[in-house]
Design brief:
It contains 19 helices and seven strands. It is an alpha+beta fold and 618 residues long.
């Protein structure tokens, strides 16, 4: 709402008060607005600013100056305008009823007991003023209606002007009780409003009955003829008490902080109320003098001040609601436009998605076909590799068998023939005394026997076939020590290890080729052979302390030692891992699955990717 001064002079809305648009944007409820310290939008909750204080002070000063100017002439008798009474009191009644209605409306939102009490006070003044109008002598009849007598109007005026300050005092003590507001926030306000109306009506009826039916119980305030009465001392005393109660109400409002804009204008009302009582009951001499008319005018002003402020507040709130609705309409149009644009973009996106989906489906179909072709090619490649492996295995077995046959014939035939020839030659030398001359021939025959045995052993050590892998490994280590002068340690677990073909031959050949490589290239002083059998595989580790080599360096074109190891392991679905670095020797780890072991996966990997699974190239 606008501040009071702004509402009068049409200035800009105070920036201290949030607009309805801002409140609607934040989604705050009315209850949240009324309890928030920064969202006060009603006269009863808005703290007064400098402009409101200046305007209220200006109104008080104007009424005070008017009072000071009119006070010396209060007893001046003026013409009797009987129509003034119903017009003035009708205006007061209408103002009080409208004010009460607006306050009940704010109570419906704020659930404030203080506002309900204040609305009850305005209803009480309206009902009491109605009784005062009906009983005023000379307006509707010479003595007034409702069985009025000469003192009824005076006492109704006292009840009227004494009850409202009492209500103001009660309001001042109840206002600003946020905890009480929160307690009653969820309660229905209609029963409370009807109760306030009923209470005000009952009290007004009680005042009317006391001023008419209880006429004899009240002291005399007027003397003289009914149409031109004079005030008595009792009238002065009663009006002084009424004036004191009004002053007490003003002091209570000043004392009860913090003040709201409504409190500020209630103070202005009480100032006008004091001027009204002073004119109408103290300074004037009789009815229809200047004090009589001035007091009624002050009473009408007192009834209109809060009504004007509440009306301006409602006008401003209504303007904000209209502005908020207009903003909402514009926002709705913008949202609708954005919705249309979004729908268009969504349709375009769906079209693009559909086209991309069709293209993706086609590409996926081609990819599936390509994958199927690759699977068929891989299956064919696997089949060919299996066949190649079988052929290589058959070729290796045939070669080993041929080597075995040649080695056995060399050992059994040629060696035996050479040995027999030497013996015969030795016998001839002894009979003919030609030992010295035939000694070189004997030496050549001995070397031929040794070379034949060595060649036979290299082709196929007969100990492998006759005594098994353990004996063949021991013979190989011993032969390596004798031939190269390198210490060789052999470790076999379990000691009675025995393997079937072709695993036994593969292990023996890998050991033989590894020791050959050590003897030729490693320049080592020690070699270690470790052969261990596990549940599903056999593990062979060949280590030396030689010069080693760089695994990243490409091998020589004529170097087939490590390739031979890989091929040997490949034929039995084995794996070879080589670790070496310059100056730190070489370690060859061989893992060969045993027959019947769950090694199909490794075998397939070895067949499909020999460079990754069957053996690792250095």
């Amino acid at each position: 709402m606008k501040p009071v001064g702004v509402a009068f002079f049409g200035s800009k809305i105070s920036p201290r008060i949030p607009t309805i648009n801002a409140l609607a944007t934040t989604g705050a409820s009315v209850n949240e607005l009324t309890t928030g310290s920064d969202s006060r939008v009603f006269l009863s909750t808005l703290p007064p600013g400098r402009r409101e204080r200046r305007l209220a002070l200006a109104v008080v000063l104007i009424t005070a100056v008017a009072f000071i100017c009119a006070a010396p002439f209060a007893k001046v008798q003026l013409p009797r305008v009987w129509a003034f009474i119903p017009v003035y009191e009708s205006a007061v009644i209408v103002c009080d009823l409208l004010t009460a209605a607006l306050l009940i409306g704010q109570h419906r939102i704020l659930r404030s007991k203080a506002l309900l009490v204040l609305a009850t006070g305005y209803l009480l003044t309206a009902f009491t003023a109605t009784a005062h109008l009906l009983t005023f002598p000379g307006v509707f009849s010479d003595t007034g209606w409702l069985g009025a007598r000469s003192q009824s109007t005076a006492w109704l005026y006292v009840f009227w002007h004494a009850s409202f300050p009492v209500v103001i005092i009660v309001y001042a003590w109840l206002k600003g009780d946020a905890a009480q507001m929160a307690t009653h926030r969820e309660r229905a306000c209609a029963p409370a409003a009807f109760g306030a109306i009923a209470l005000a009506a009952l009290v007004a009826v009680a005042f009317a009955l006391l001023a008419t039916r209880g006429y004899d119980w009240l002291p005399q305030q007027l003397s003289g003829p009914p149409l031109a009465p004079r005030y008595t001392v009792a009238h002065a005393v009663v009006l002084t008490l009424t004036w004191s109660i009004s002053l007490l109400a003003l002091a209570t409002l000043l004392r009860r902080r913090p003040h709201s804009v409504l409190d500020l204008w209630l103070m202005v009302v009480m100032c006008a109320w004091l001027f009204d009582i002073t004119f109408a009951g103290v300074l004037n001499h009789s009815r229809f003098d200047l004090g009589f008319y001035a007091g009624r005018i002050y009473s009408l002003c007192a009834a209109s001040f809060v009504l004007v402020m509440l009306t301006l507040e409602n006008i401003d709130l209504y303007a904000r609601v209209v502005q908020s609705l207009e903003s909402e309409r514009i926002e709705r149009q913008r949202v609708q436009l954005q919705t249309v644009q979004l729908n268009e973009a969504n349709a375009l996106l769906e079209h693009r998605v559909a086209s991309r989906t069709a293209a993706l489906t086609e590409a996926n179909r081609d990819l599936v076909n390509e994958v199927l072709e690759r699977k068929r090619a891989q299956a064919a490649l696997q089949h060919s590799r299996e066949e190649l492996r079988e052929l290589a295995s058959i070729g290796t077995s045939a070669r080993e068998q041929e080597n075995r046959r040649i080695a056995r014939e060399l050992h059994d035939e040629l060696c035996q023939t050479l040995a027999a020839s030497r013996l015969e030659l030795q016998l001839v030398a002894e009979r003919k005394a030609l030992s010295a001359e035939l000694a070189p021939v004997n030496s050549l025959l001995d070397e031929a026997v040794v070379a034949t045995r060595r060649i036979a052993a290299d082709l196929r050590p007969l100990v492998l076939d006759d005594l098994g892998l353990v004996a063949a490994a021991e013979w190989l280590a011993q032969n390596f020590r004798q031939r190269h002068g390198i210490e060789c340690e052999l470790i076999i677990e379990p000691p009675d290890l025995d393997l079937e073909e072709p695993q036994a031959t593969a292990v023996f050949r890998i050991m033989q080729e590894s020791l050959t490589n050590i003897g030729r290239h490693a320049r080592a002083s020690r070699a270690t052979l470790s052969l261990t059998r596990h549940d599903d595989h056999v593990s062979l580790v060949v280590q030396d302390n030689g010069v080693g080599f760089d695994l990243s360096t490409p091998r020589k074109l004529n170097s087939f030692g490590l390739s031979g190891l890989r091929e040997r392991a490949y034929l039995v679905a084995g794996e070879v891992s080589i670790r070496s670095s310059p100056g730190h020797g070489t370690s060859i780890d061989v893992r060969i699955p045993l027959p019947g072991a769950p090694a199909a996966t490794r075998l397939d990997a070895a067949l499909l990717h020999p460079e990754a699974g069957g053996a690792r190239r250095p």
